[in-house]
Amino acid sequence: MSSISTVVFADLSGSTSLYESMGNERAAKTVMRLTQWMSEVLQAHQGRVVKMLGDGVLGIFANAHQAVVAAGELQRSHQIHLQRWPDVLRLEMHVGVASGEVLEVDGDAYGDAVNVASRLCERAGPGEIWTNDLTAVDAGVVPHVHFRKLGVFEIRGKTEAQLIFQAEWRDQESPEQLTMQAGLLSNVAPLDSLPGAIELAWKGEKLLFSSEDAPLHIGRSSAAQVSISDPRVSRMHARVDWSNGAFALTDVSSFGTWVQFAGSDTVVPLRRSACMLHGEGRMALGMPFGVGAPTLDFRITGSSMRLG
Question: What is the CATH code for 197-301?
Answer without folding.
Answer: 2.60.200.20
